[in-house]
Design a protein that fits this description.
The complex is a heterodimer.
Chain A (H helix, E strand, L loop, with lengths): L5 E11 H6 L4 H10 L3 H7 L7 E12 L4 E5 L6 H8 L7 E6 L3 E4 L12 H11 L4 H15 L14 H13 L5 E5 L7 H15 L5 E5 L3 H7 L2 E6 L2 E7 H14 L14 E2 L4 E9 L8 E3 L4 E9 L6 E8 L6 E10 L8 E8 L7 E3 L1 E6 L5 E6 L5 E4 L4 H4 L23
Parallel strand pairs in A: 3-7, 3-8, 5-6, 6-7, 12-20
Antiparallel strand pairs in A: 1-2, 1-4, 8-9, 10-19, 11-13, 13-16, 14-15, 14-18, 17-20, 18-19
Chain B lengths: L6 H9 L11 E3 L10 H6 L1 H15 L8 H21 L9 H23 L6 H4 L8 H28 L10 H18 L1 H6 L2 H15 L15 H4 L5 H12 L6 H29 L4
Classes of the chains: A alpha/beta, B mainly alpha.
Chain lengths: 427, 295
């Protein structure tokens, strides 16, 4: 049995929600309170919070990681994934329990931390590198590599405030990726930058995880990346470690949880990552069905998938379009989308409707396709956007992989257009 | 809490990137039970970051300014001119037998250093909130880097002082040897007192203004623009218990040869400064623990 590189024992973290609510007091109240008892706040910080003002973000988490393991961390928003990473990267302290890390830790929690807009790219590489924990000599040695990876060599002596956001992110990621820590924490940073850069990042992640034998904890909503990179996964649910085991089993448990959640007009409306739009019209139910009218999530290539969408009008609208977008499970780019006109007639508040959209003969390659559902008008103004709240569309095949030409580790495309070997002769 | 960022750790990781032997000094993450003291070895391990933080502040401060580092000397010169006209020529305040301009400049120099230490201490957590909510490093590095940065400003101000001393033919005394001690008292008092407020400033932004007022008021409790001789004899001992007293009087004595502070007062001021620093550090360490959840 190898000695673990990360040992987490009964880790708990609580947030004081009572103290947080007080922060929204008016300035006058706050001044009056603080003048009345200037050190009450300090006294409050010193005493442990009572049970009703406590929110347990993490509760009694224990697990071990051996060197070279790549662990996926999955769970819904607010399940405690980010809190766990924050504790492991020592940004915040646990309330109970302990964690022991036997090695240097690097996190890609937030790329570009400490970048100063007035300093040049070159200067920021050094500043950011030392903030991440590198020594100056180490940055000197890796400098050329970092510059080459980031692809901003022409702008090295330009202040980063003049960089495009893409260049900024590339440079930031390049520094973070060259930290070469023994333990790497990654929190969905792969969604940054343009497509080509995302592929580069994914490649870097894979080489960090695979060839270099580094220990990685990888947080993502993207099950396909997790399946490709992580043999083992942890599933957090409401702050507790729900499951720890092979990714395929953990993923099944996670999907079972998502399946239980029904989309209503209110689901996740306060989370702009998953629900956006003006709210004039909202989806009240989203279902995926097969041609036998049964709810289904798994489809074979060539099947027909049917979306049954219920919606309700809350504010008057003049017309209504609906769109369904399939994203790539790997890079989140749009694989295909379908826009349908529902009505050109004005709709009044209270109107409820249902539409059914079918995709016949799914000709996309096996994989997970996270879904986006949209309601809006012809000006592309969104009334409702539901992003990755449902299970992804899962497409599989009974054909051999060689025949389909699909390897989940490499972006080989999404569509299966049949080809025929017409000739192959010596020339 | 010892990060694995020693020179040995890095060079071995670089030579043997595939080596994953758990290192001898693990990072232990657990709730800090007591008032943890300042971890000097950890600060030493992060010395490169300290260097780049100082360097960042210096570079960023004067970027896109036409006068650049001249601002450092411009501020005390303008204050000096203002006080010389107001208090020297109009109010005709006594200046211990040296020209009023030198008198006020020598007092304003260490005062400016102290005032910036005070601000750095109080805003140490708020000022770096973007950083501390995203990455771990010894939090004390930030106010420390800023204070060392103002030390560099101070040394540039010294150049102007030397010109003034030559012009007025004033002679420094052996007290020059005590300048580091005076700076130490100013830094510990300023940082320590400021850090007492570091948590409150995050929670209630009002305290940022309060610290500003304290700083401006504090200046007039010291013989910077007026002479100690204006203080009635019977109050002078209590007056000199202000930890900054021997810094101001001592600077003036060391550089222009006015009356020195008594050794007893210097000792008392040093102890007071150290105590303030230790108290401030404890508060800082205690607040730092939960502050990320409040930012």
């Amino acid at each position: 049995m190898t000695k673990p590189i990360i040992q987490v024992e009964h880790l708990s973290k609580r947030y004081r929600i009572g103290a947080r609510a007080k922060q929204v007091d008016s300035i006058r109240d706050t001044v009056a309170n603080s003048l009345r008892s200037p050190f009450r706040y300090l006294a409050e910080m010193l005493r442990p919070p009572t049970e009703e003002e406590t929110l347990w973000a993490l509760r009694d988490i224990s697990f071990n990681v051996v060197p070279g393991e790549v662990i996926g961390l999955i769970g819904r928003n607010g399940a405690g994934k980010s809190t766990l990473l924050k504790i492991l990267s020592r940004i915040t302290q646990p309330a109970q329990g302990r964690a022991v890390l036997h090695g240097r830790m690097g996190s890609l929690l937030e790329v570009g931390t400490g970048f100063h807009p007035d300093l040049t790219g070159r200067e920021n590489i050094y500043l950011n590198g030392t903030i991440l924990g590198m020594r100056k000599t180490e940055i000197d040695r890796k400098f050329d590599e970092i510059v080459a990876f980031s692809d901003v060599s022409r702008f090295l002596d330009t202040p980063v405030k003049r960089y495009s956001s893409g260049m900024y992110v590339r440079l930031a990621f390049a520094v973070a990726a060259h930290l070469e820590p023994e333990i790497l924490l990654v929190d969905e940073v792969l969604a940054v930058g343009d497509l080509a850069f995302q592929r580069k990042c994914l490649g870097k992640m894979e080489s960090l995880a695979g060839e270099d034998g580094r220990t990685v904890i990888f947080v993502s909503h993207n099950m396909q990346s997790i399946r490709a990179l992580c043999p083992r996964s942890l599933f957090l649910r409401e702050g507790r470690l729900q499951m720890d085991g092979p990714t395929s089993e953990v993923q099944a448990a996670y999907y079972a949880e998502i399946r239980r959640q029904e989309i209503t007009a209110e689901t996740a409306v306060n989370d702009p990552r998953h629900r956006r739009g003006s709210g004039a019209v909202r989806y009240t139910s989203i279902q995926m069905q097969n041609t036998q009218n049964d709810i289904s999530y798994d489809f074979m290539m060539g099947d027909t998938v049917r979306f049954v969408l219920d919606y309700q009008v809350f504010e008057p609208v003049d017309e209504l379009y609906c769109s369904i977008v399939f994203r790539s499970g790997k890079t989140a780019e749009v694989v295909t989308s379908a826009l349908n006109l529902l009505t050109k007639k004005p709709l009044k508040p209270g109107y409820k409707g249902q539409c059914i959209v079918e995709f016949a003969n799914l000709n996309i390659r096996p994989g997970d396709y996270p879904l986006q559902f949209w309601l809006g008008n012809h000006l592309a103004q969104a009334y409702d956007v539901v992003e990755e709240l449902t299970l992804p569309l899962i497409v599989s095949t009974d054909q051999a992989f060689e025949q389909v030409g699909f390897n989940p580790s490499y972006p080989v495309g999404y569509y299966n257009i049949s080809s025929l070997l017409v000739s192959n002769t010596a020339s | 809490m010892k990060p694995q960022i020693s020179i040995q750790g890095i060079s071995s990781a670089a030579e043997l990137p595939k080596e994953n032997t758990p290192s001898a000094r693990p990072i232990v993450i657990e709730p800090r039970s007591s008032w943890a003291p300042l971890d000097l070895s950890e600060l030493w391990e992060y010395r490169d970051l300290l260097y780049f933080l100082i360097w960042r502040d210096l570079k960023a401060r004067y970027r896109q300014t036409a006068l650049g580092p001249f601002w450092i000397v411009l501020q005390p010169i303008i204050s000096m001119a203002l006080y010389t006209i107001l208090f020297g020529y109009i109010a005709k305040l006594p200046s211990d037998g040296i020209p009023y301009s030198v008198f006020s400049y020598v007092g304003l120099m260490p005062w400016g250093f102290f005032a910036s230490s005070l601000t750095n201490g109080s805003s140490s957590l708020l000022g770096s909130k973007d950083l501390i909510s995203k990455i771990y490093f010894p939090r004390f590095l930030n106010p420390l880097a800023k204070t060392i940065g103002s030390l560099i400003d101070l040394s540039i101000e010294f150049i102007i002082l030397v010109l003034l001393l030559i012009y007025y033919r004033l002679q420094p005394t052996w007290g020059l040897a005590l300048i580091p001690l005076f700076l130490f008292i100013a830094a510990t008092t300023g940082l320590g007192f400021g850090m007492l407020f570091s948590g409150l400033v995050v929670k209630y932004r009002d305290f940022g203004n309060l610290v500003g007022y304290i700083s401006r008021t504090w200046m007039y409790t010291l013989p910077i623009v007026y002479s100690v001789t204006l203080i009635p004899e019977q109050w002078r001992f209590i007056y000199s218990l202000n930890p900054m007293f021997s810094v101001i009087v001592g600077f003036r004595w060391a550089l222009t040869g006015t009356e020195p502070p008594s050794p007893l007062i210097i000792a008392l001021n040093t102890v007071a400064g150290l105590l303030l620093f230790i108290c401030g550090m404890f508060v800082f360490k205690r607040v730092e623990r939960d502050i990320v959840d409040l930012l």
